[in-house]
Amino acid sequence: MSQQRHGSTPGDAGGVPAFPDLPEATIARLPEYLRALHHLAEAGAETVSSEGLAAAAGVNSAKLRKDLSHLGSYGTRGVGYDVALLVDQIEYILGLDENRAVCLVGVGNLGHALAGYAGFASRGFRVVALFDADRKKVGEVINGLTVRHIGELERVAAEESIAIGVIATPPGSAQAVADVLVAAGVTSILNFAPCVLAVPPNVDVRKVDLAIELQILSFHEHRKASLTALPGGGGDATGDQEAVGS
Amino acid sequence: MSQQRHGSTPGDAGGVPAFPDLPEATIARLPEYLRALHHLAEAGAETVSSEGLAAAAGVNSAKLRKDLSHLGSYGTRGVGYDVALLVDQIEYILGLDENRAVCLVGVGNLGHALAGYAGFASRGFRVVALFDADRKKVGEVINGLTVRHIGELERVAAEESIAIGVIATPPGSAQAVADVLVAAGVTSILNFAPCVLAVPPNVDVRKVDLAIELQILSFHEHRKASLTALPGGGGDATGDQEAVGS
DNA sequence: TTATGTGAACATTTTCACAGCG
DNA sequence: CGCTGTGAAAATGTTCACATAA
Q: Is residue A163 located within the same domain as residue A191?
């Protein structure tokens, strides 16, 4: 119904793109499609069917087609999707062509790993600054970046126009760090500390809690164990590949 | 309608508990409630209202009450929930009282951090073994555990009855590691490698992709930027505290 | 009177099944 | 024909608003 023209194409990054408002569930899957597409492109594929891409991304093909239809995608009936074109489309929608600057606060165990995580750079992000409150860590060089004191955050954030802040501190410090980030004008925060952050409504927070994922798995282990006590097959279930919902 | 009696209580861990089948969305939030409850308990609270717990967990109170009602919880009308009792309930449901054994495969940057992550031990998991394919890493001691070669996984998994395997390898090795875990009888996998794993239907896989979260934030940054070009308030939106859906 | 527990309304997401384009 | 794009149906999740119990 609306697929012929939509917003703007990757080429014209200038104007106001009449931004398509995608369902949140779709947005969360786009990065997965993108990864699969890059993989296919490296393998030399020029086009891919919804079936093929869906398999590579671990979803079913109907969902994939529906998702792509929301961005008004350029599939060809009877053929499939142009891999390179779709990569550009998705990268544009996700804003990955803007090479956003990211800073990381807290260089403990996890912060160290994140600072060196190649997946950030390879997917359109520049880690431009590391901060910590601990003076003993200030000055340390990780992956070519020098750790600075958190007091410098506000100044550096402005200088480097940092778009996203990553919090990898203990939970007790996370809210204070979030406040500093917000004061510095950062409007997107990725929080690894196991706590809830209070931020103004214009700031987006996403949370990753490593232990939560384990606990969800534990629930399913517990359930499986309680079921084996009952009669019936042994294995079971509906036979989906990725059994637990993401 | 069914709240008086339900399955079994934490105390009686023996029988088959007529396992309540909770909505997936509810399960995913239970760990968050649990964290908030522990926090409240440490602060000395004996009871908490749905309003109070909801705020501490970052959800609204209606959702919290609905979630807890699914596990047939023991709130008292006019008063609230008994903190200690609710902790026991949720820990029982999640199977956290069983102190599951976890192994970690891949001790690179991220694996190192995970091996030392205190959040695992503190929430009912025992990291009992570390593995790597790289002979140079075998023998290294991390957090009191010696890294073993992946060839030993099958034997060790049986000895230690490992319930959950965590994959922190590069994506190219992840499927092979998953195959080894499955062969060793592990039925729950937490995958940090950015790739899709194929496993039998009785095995649960959950995935954490650090870069995906950044890409979702990037999308919202992109959208915000394209909206500021338009007229209207400036700040905006509906004023929710955690603006981006989890 | 207070705050839980819950039907019923609403919203979102997934799946189905097929029309229609290449 | 094959495969995309999409209405319509089904399933799942959230919010409302109030009956109900302490």
A: yes
